[in-house]
Structure formats: structure tokens, C-alpha cells
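hey team, just a heads up i'm posting the complex here instead of the shared drive bc the drive is being weird again. everything in one block, sequence lines first with there labels, then the predicted structure for the whole assembly after. its two chains so it's a bit long, scroll down
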Amino acid sequence: MTEEVRIGVYVCHCGSNIAGTVDVEEVARWAGHLPNVVSSRDYKFMCSSLGQEMIEKDIKEMGVNRVVVASCTPHLHEPTYRNALARAGLNPYFFEMANIREQVSWVTSDPVEATKKAEALVAAAVGRVAWHQALEPLFVPIEPSVLIVGGGVTGIQSALEIADAGYHVYMVEREPSIGGHMAQLDKTFPTLDCSACILTPKMFNVGNHKNVTLMTWSEVEKVDGYIGNFTVTIRKRARYIDEALCTGCGVCQEKCPKRVVDDVFEAGVGRRKAVYRPFPQAVPNYPVIDRANCTFFLKGTCKACEKFCPTGAIKFDQQDEIVTVKVGNIILATGWDLFDARRMPQYGYGRLPNVFSSMEFERLSNAAGPTGGKIVLRDGVSVPKSVGIIHCVGSRDKNYNNYCSAICCMQSLKFAHLVHEKTGAQVHNFYIDIRTPAKAYDEFYQRILEEGTIFIRGKVAEVTDTGRTPEEEGKLIVQVDDSLAGRQRRIPLDMVILSAGLEPRHDAKEVAIKFGISCSADRWFMEKHPKLDPVATMTDGVFVAGACQGPKDIPASVAQGSAAAARVLSIIGQKEIEIDAATAIVDETSCVGCKECIASCPYQAIEFLEDKGKAYVREALCKGCGTCVGTCLSKSIALKHFTDQQLVSEMIGAMTAMKMFEQAQTEVA
Amino acid sequence: MADPKIIGFLCNWCSYRGADTAGMARMKYPPHVKIVRVPCSGRISPELVLRTFREGADGVMVLGCHIGDCHYNTGNHRTAKRMPMLKKLLEYTGIDPRRLYINWVSAAEGEKFASVITEFTETMRSLPPMSEVMQAEVMQSEVMR
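-- predicted structure starts here --
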């Protein structure tokens, strides 16, 4: 430190968020006596423009050259204050934050203890900031291509926004076709427009866009790099179809002798062939051969598809292909899995034939589905005269998922309408609460009420086929605690539909790890900020959109798809991106060339200079984790902005304050 | 005993955010742990922990991302190997190894954060203050001389 250190300390009240518990005036007064502190103030809202101007004024007029703000978490406002420093002509790294809101006022009951803790944290920050050094940020160019994982409506929306803006999109989809769950649905609430009719034009646009490279039947294997410079390895699974030759005529599918139950697209109620495309409007329209069920792969003979294919596109010897692409940003739109209602045996799904899951019902009701849109019982012919729809299956239930799946109420109301319209059956909806909080949703509820659907408020105890009275014989009986009537009821019905909830993808955790993001406690992908940054993640350049982040209906998913695209486009528009200057640096005078750091680096950012016998950090690759620093035995690597001197001074600042308080307490005693 | 003096070294991406989550949910926990933020738990060198004990800390907490969840992929693998070794070294030098606490707290685990802080603070309260331990060591070595 050659220049004189002049520290300014600014203690924020955050309205009453901090000042309600911490004596902020006392903290500011106390901090004024700490070494090198020349200005110490408190203010209602430091992050307001007036608060920031206060800092800028002190820098310009009092020669403050190090700044400590005691307020909220640095994850919220560190960039705000760094910008304020920069505006006043000070290097933004001459700044440190003491988190006296999330770590003090919000978690400490006793105001005296809270004030002491706040003072100790301020002392720590003051100790640290004295040793801060000016750092110059590094700029790297941004690769404009974007990877979108998941080809449901969310991913489609993102892809079209970005591709239309003129940038290249690689879309990776696990299934043979894009479209996601929305392609399976019959009608969409509350407008009741046909799901496929509004989705397929968008699917077609993605499939035919000059700026989109579509890879279906593919999965991301590996992701390397960082914002602006990701290298993504994708496995294109063998379709056993030559995409260049296939015209999508569908003859192979017609001639294939093997029929199997389609558990994915038809939700188990319909069948498909061993060579198939999930639905007629599939994009791309090439089929795939399902190796696990194909007679040729199982027994070595058949090849009916090959015989009849007019263009010779069937290739039984095709291998998986590994593709590597360079992208600057990634959007994850991997969607959701349906709650498996078999996990609630009391509702009889999988055991009682006429208990259907919500997705099964969608396929039954869909004109392109296995029954051609006829709502019939499992026997395939009988039309139900009475239907029960159970809400909240697997949701709002501490035994399964605590959260509300957000779509089930509206979906159940839609089912009630469809059953009523197509069969004239009497419909009972069994609900806990009705939640219809979006545009035109409650109006839809009112409409269903007027259509004569019976609503019973109460948690269904069980669905059984054991009748107790003659009228219950041969029926499904729903046993429910009718909480409005205040009694138990048994309602005999022909058909029961379980409005199963949404769950994170079964492999959400592995996918999160692959892309370096986190999951929240219930396994949905975690956003950077639940309110103010809902599509970004803690990993720069990786965004989440749609139901992979939490249960969402179509409008919300589409909005997030666009939001993620907008975030990505704003990054691409910057052309180059600032990467944190907090990188590691080797002190060649003491480095002994043991190479321990090279082994510890998660990014292969350290190389060995053979001529000098020393380690060398390649700054552009270094992410600033400091693992090499913790590993170095000769103390020859420093992590900028997290140097030993800085961390030790911070620790000593806190320790000294704590010792002072202890001594004061002993003296009083 | 008097209030324990504890320093917690927390990684920026998981555990520090776990502390934020606990704060946002207004979970109450004892105020004796002062947090020092590091980018990754892998940054925490043994010397940093030892220096903290030398300054008179009664306990040191090292919290990082769960294994497999590390923001830097494998930074915390080093922590997982390094810190148990350091515990042995502490024991060898006469410092109760319980004074060094290692755990993994994710950004979502606010509740876990509050409970590990409470638990560790209680453990430290049950041990004699570090200042007394050091005093006793000094006296013993003088007797032996």
C-alpha cells in the first residue's frame, strides 16, 4: 500500500429491514473509529440514487478511496455499488460489502447481539478492503450461436426468437420429434383452442428455419467452457434411418409388423410400430427404429421396412454420432415429468382399469389419439355416464410433493368441459381449493360451474370397485370427505380421471450437474433470483425457461421462453463479455514447479513452463475458484481479490471485534 | 462459557447463498459465526484455518457445495480430502478436532444452514474457550522446561 488508505463506511437501514433490529446509527458511529476510516454514515436506502450519490460525493470531495457498504447480500447489490465507484472514477474492486441483512437483521432476534454482529462484519470488511487492489476486467468475444435443450413449446419459442433475430440455434431434443407435452394435449385452457393447431406451425418453423440446426433423438453428453465460449458435445443416437434419403412417406411404418404400446407420446393408451414417428405432424418427419422392439434387432430377420422403403433410407448399421458445437449461451427448457399416480395405490391407478391419468385422458380426447377423440372406458367402446375428476394428485400433499402444480385446477376444469360436451356424462370434480389466478381463468371456472359440473370440496380417501349397495355394484366408488357438507360420501362413477401433478424430470439432478447449475430442494432447476432474475442461473450464460424451473402452464412457459431468448440476445448484442478479473497468478520467484496446482485445477487453466520450471496460469481459462491456491505448498499462487492478505485481514477484523466485545462484557461483569 | 468466537468460511455459490436463503426465510440462529466469503471451498488453505485458530477462534466452519454440485466442478473434491487431514493435524497439535467443522450446504438448504450453525455453536459452547486451552498449553510447557 503506497497511497494513504481512506475508507468510507456506509450503513444501510433498508427501511426497517435492517434498522428494525440493528442499531444502524451505532454501527456507523462505531465504524468511524476503525483504522483508516475517514467517513462513516448511515442512510435509509443505500441502493437508492441518493445513497449512491452519497458515496460518489465522498469519493470526490473527501478523497475516499476504499468503500464498505453494510447492507444486503453482495449477490443482490455488489454490482450496483461497484458501478457507483466506477462512476466516481474509482476502480470498482476497491469495494467490499458487509451483509448485515441476510446474515444479521433477518436471522437474529436479539437487537443487542444483532448490532454486535453487524459491527463485527463491518470491521471484517474494513480490514479486508484496506488490502484491495485495483483490477482490470478481462473481455472475451461472444460466440453468437445458442444451444437450446428441449424442444417443447418453451424451447420452440426461444429458438424462434433467437433464430429470427439472425443468430444460429442448435436445438437438442431427446425424443424423435419436437413438440413436447403440448403436442400430446387435446385442447388448451381457457380458450379451448386445439393444442396441435397452435403448436404445429411453430414446430414447422423451427424445423425449416435457416438458422436452426435441429438434433432430435439426441442428448447433450458434455459441456465445457464458460459464457460466450461453450463447447458442447452432443450424442445423436442412431435412428437407423438415413436422414438425407428419407422423404417421410411413412411406408416403413405401415409395413412394420411389430406393434408396441406407446408409453411416451400416447401415454400408454395407444400403440405404435417398432419403426415410428410419434405423431403425423412430427418435426422432423423422419421416423426412428426402436431398437429394443424391432424384430430384426431382436431376432435377426424381418427387414420389412428396408424392403419397402422406396428410397433405401433404412440403415441397420447406423451408429451413434458424436457432434461438437460451439455456442456462447445455453437455454435449458427440459420440461417436466408427469407424477406417476401408481405411487398413490389408494386411487387404484394401474389396478382399476377405468381410472385414467390426466395424460391418458388427453390422448383419449384428442381427435388424433387412439380412439379418434372418443371418450370411452378402457374396454374401448362403453361411453361413461358419470365421471369423477380428482384434483391435486401428488401435489399439495406432504407425502409426495408439497408444491401446487399450478396447472391441475384449470386442466381439471377443461376435462370437465370436454367430458360434458362429448359424452353428456355427469361430472364430479373433487378439489381441495380451486386456483384460477390468470387472465380469463376464473371466468372459465364460472362457465364450468354453469355447465352443471358438481364440485365437491374434499380430499379423496380412496377409489375402490368394492360396492356396498346395489347401485354401487360394477362402479368405481369415490370415498370423499366432503368438507363443505361435513360428512363422508361415497359416489359411484363409471370413470375416474386423476389430475396428476408435474414433477421435475427424473434426471433433472444429473442434467443440472452437467450444465453446472443447481436444483432447489424439490429438484426444479434453480433460478438466479426468484423474482428479479427468473430465467438466469448462477452460472453465467446458462438460462432456464419453462416448467424445468417449476410448474407452469403454456402461457407462462412461452413467456419464459421469450424472456430467456431476450436475455441471450442482449448478451450476444454486447459482442464481448466482461469476465471477472479475480483470477489466479503465480509468483515465479517461489514456485518450485511441483505441479500440484496443475492437478488441482478443474479447468486445465494452469500449464507448466518447461523452460523456467514454473507453473503459469492462463487467465482467460481461469474461473477464479482458488483451488490451486489452497493446494500450493509453497504459497506461490495468489487469487486476485481473494488473497491471503485480504482474507486474513477480514478474519482478523471480525476476530478483533469479537474479542473487544468479550472484554467489554468481562469488565462489566 | 462465554460466547464462542467462530469464523465460517463459505463458498460463494452454494453455502453463502444457503445463508442468504435462511435470511430470506427469516430463520433465526445464534449470532456467533462470522462469515468470510470465498469463491470455492477449495480456496481454503490449511494455513488459513490454522491462522484463524491462532487469532483465538473457538471454532472454524468450512461449508461448500455438495459433492457433484460444485460451481467449479471439482473444487470441493480438494476440500473433501484436505479438511479431514487437517482435522488429524489439529488433533496432533492438541486442538480438539471438533473445532473444525466441514459440511456441504446447497443454495436451497436455508434450513440446513441454520441448523448446522446452531448445532456447531452449541458444540463450541460445550468446549472450553480456545484462550483457556492455549493458556494451559503455555503453562504446561513452562512446567516441563
